[in-house]
Structures are given as structure tokens and as C-alpha cells.
């Protein structure tokens, strides 16, 4: 009976991976949990085949899940329509609740039938036994066996907690929390109570004078007027977040599920990938995939590339393929709310996810920060620049098709009448300030600009000067070399950025007669005398011509062009390590 209940409540099983020779060699004669035997070799290269009862019940529950998702997104319009038609009265809501309760009971019965179907399937019983054994004891052998299954990631045991390194948990939950949020200290609240009560009374009095009201939770329950900040919050948490991160929309993930399963199978079976669940400090669970190349003869396998995907990208089918093909060790992860990761992809949640990913790479996988490279595509530039800013010892940063700031791109797709609301919403809730964060990083940086990019241009794809990658380069160079990037240097770099082909670039470069040996000697001499920390005052005593030559040299070293659209996979020959002295 206990096993039947486990089958009813257990996760959906998608695939049983084929066993790899490397696993057999490592495991030797495995000790399996009681009553668990390894699957026969013939079953390892197939999708899990449910019995008829489980299959049909799964289809019904999946259809109900899709309808629920559609109802959720359309609920504001439905409530408005029902209100206008007078259907929200008590006399009509009560019968509707009866129908809803009956439907829920029917779905619960379907779930029980699915559990019976699973219970009659020896493959599923074997899987649920291994899963329960792993939850009880996360031994290496149990984890190895569990990794042979692809199932609903919500049931995967947590492999790494954000507080694991040193004493971070103790600090965060004692002194750290109280220093960061002193308002949570009871004695301070007690001292401020008269002031808080006066403020609450003022809000109640003001709300009586205004027709538009918004419910606010505070010391009690009070009404406060709907402010511009409230508008921004509503926009960000409804339409804004889903427009910015369409990959977090359930219906899109449902449509992409077969492709994601195939991509994950390729990473596990062909690349020997290791999946892991990381728990971030905000409680979100982050889905990761690690491919270890340190055991190969290729020297780049000793370096780890952490990949940050775009706003509709997943590690299963995303930019991880480029560094994998180049022979690097790779760690991919999904944004909060994407595929197996929980939560919603707001900037702070993104930063928390990136933090636990870096901690996992250092403290569990054993890579030093000096051996870690951050590689980001598109909107992934936010988390990559955040990690570079927060972990200054990171080896290098590569940003492909990224931008400097979200506001210009948000204004591009919204009506002019919403300009103020859009700017306020982005700044307060969706502030992806890539350039500001990148300027706080001292290490090597390479920007890859796509000459036919249709996403991060603010006019048309043909207008290469509207590509926000240009602004990211200019802000970085102006911060690092302010004297070189004065008016003369800025002008010549803009001319170089206007080039849309390698031939035009080379023509501009040769016209200014840039002497690379001289540029390198100037920069190395300055570094030897003043140290590596930016900003540099190099160029302060140069002529305008020399500053222009040096500015063009630096621009050419920090930005490479790739003649392609935004979503074209980056060829391995374009994946190069950034220039450094």
C-alpha cells in the first residue's frame, strides 16, 4: 500500500537514459538499494513507456494543466467580463463552486488511476524505489542510479545549498540579516510604534479623499492611494516580466518540452553531463547541468565556462553547445522559472541564482575563480556581469549579442505614450544595468556584436549603429581609459563601429595607421608603473592622433563582429578568449 501511495504522489517519469561505459567503469559492482536491480541494457536507450492506464490519465491531467494555465493568464479579463454581466453574485458563485469541487474530485480520481497504472509498471516501481532511497540517503551510488532517470525536477533532491560554504548560513541568519534589515529588529519597531501609527492614520485619512484605492499590508489593514510606483509594480509583475522573459511562460515550456528532453538526453548520454539541483538564498531551486572535461587531454578542459542563457533560452538547447564543442568544461543553468528551476526571473532572483551557481562551481566542483570564464548570450549578460562584479577574480567575461541597458530596448517595443511608465517600471523592478556592472569588473572582456541583430537594435537591423552592443563597448572603454576615449578617441571608435563588414573595418584601421607594437608598449609600460586596476590615466599626455590610434586599437581588441542575426548559434571559431596584456 505504501508503494501504491508513492506511485500516486510520485513525479512524472520521462526517460531512462542508456548506461554509459564510463559509469560502469567508475561504479564497478554497485550496491543498489534493497529490492532495486539495475535496468536491463535493452531499456536504457528509450523513452519511458507508460502503461495504457497511466498514459491516458497523464493526458487528461496534462490537458487540465494547460486549461488551468490559460485560465490563469486570462483571469483578469474573465473577472471583468463576469462582473459586468453580474455573474459574481453569491447566488451564482455558489453553484459554480460546486461544479469546481466536482471537477477537482474527478481529477483526483484520475490521479489515483494514474498511480495504479504506475504501480503495475515494474520500470516505474524501480524508479520510485531509487528516488525514495536517494531522499533517505544521498550516497554517491544512489545519486548515480537516480541520474539515469529524467523525471519531474521538482522531486529531485537538493544537491547543493547556498549556505554550505564555510559559515555563511550562521552569519546570514544572525548578524548578517539584522545588519541588512535593521527594521526587522523588534526593539527598533517598538521604539518607532508611535510614528508608524501616525503614518497609518494619515494613509487612512488620505485614502478617503481618493476614489482609486489599493490594498496595502502593514501594521494592520489600511487603504492607500494607487501611486505611480503601484502602477510600475503591477506592470512589472504581470505583462512586463513575461515580455522580458518569455521562457518563463508555462505554455511555451510545455510546447518546447520534447525539444528540451532531447537536448538533456544529448548532454547526459553523449557528453556525460551531470544534473544537479542548487538551492539559492531566496529559496528558489536552480536546475544545472555540468560537463566535466578535466580528464581529457585538451588543456582547455581545465577551464570552466559558466553559460548564461537568453530570455527564452534553456541550457538543454542553448549556448552551452559552443564551449562544449571547443573542449571546455561547461556548467549550464536555467533562469528561475525556466524548465526545472523554480521562482520568477526578476533581477534579484537572477543574481541569487547566479551566486549559488558560482558557489557550486567553486566549492563543490572544485574550480578556482581564476579558472572560471563567464559566457553569456543576450539577456544573460545581466547575470554574467553581476557575477564578474561580485567575484572579481573570475578569469574572463564573454558577452555575445548583449546590451548596455534595458530601458532603450523596452522603449523601442512600447508606445510613446507609455514612455514614463516603461522607464519607471524598468528602473524600479527590471533594471538590467549591464554596463554599470561590467565597469566594476577589472578582468578581460570580449564583446561579440552581431551585425544583423534584430533584437538589440533600437531602429532596424540594418542600422548597425543602433545596436546597443556599441554603447556597451563605449561605456566600458570610457570607464577604463577615460583620457584615451576623450572626444577624439570617441569619434574614431564610432567611425569604426559603423563598419558592417570585415573589409570596412580593416580599411578604417589601416587609414588611421594603427601601430599595434607601439600601442602594446604604451599600455604595458603604464601597467608596470601604475598597476592593473582601472580606470587608467594613460593618454593624458598624448597627442590627439596618438589617442585616436590607441582608442581604435583598444576597441578592436574588445569587440569582434559576427555576421549573423540574434538567435544564430555562435560557431566555435568565434568563441575566443578575451585579449589581455
TrEMBL record:
Topological relation to the membrane, as annotated: Multi-pass membrane protein
* Catalytic activity as recorded in UniProt: Hydrolyzes glycerol monoesters of long-chain fatty acids
The Gene Ontology terms for molecular function here are:
monoacylglycerol lipase activity; phospholipase activity
Ranges annotated as spanning the membrane: 60-84, 96-116
EC class name: hydrolase
Any Gene Ontology CC annotation:
membrane
Gene3D superfamilies the UniProt entry points to:
alpha/beta hydrolase (3.40.50.1820)
What is this protein's function? Phosphatidylserine (PS) lipase that mediates the hydrolysis of phosphatidylserine to generate lysophosphatidylserine (LPS). LPS constitutes a class of signaling lipids that regulates immunological and neurological processes. Has no activity towards diacylglycerol, triacylglycerol or lysophosphatidylserine lipase. Also has monoacylglycerol lipase activity, with preference for 1-(9Z,12Z-octadecadienoyl)-glycerol (1-LG) and 2-glyceryl-15-deoxy-Delta(12,14)-prostaglandin J2 (15d-PGJ(2)-G).
Q: What family is it from?
A: Belongs to the AB hydrolase superfamily. ABHD16 family.
Q: What is this protein called?
A: Phosphatidylserine lipase ABHD16A
- Source species taxonomy: Eukaryota, Metazoa, Chordata, Craniata, Vertebrata
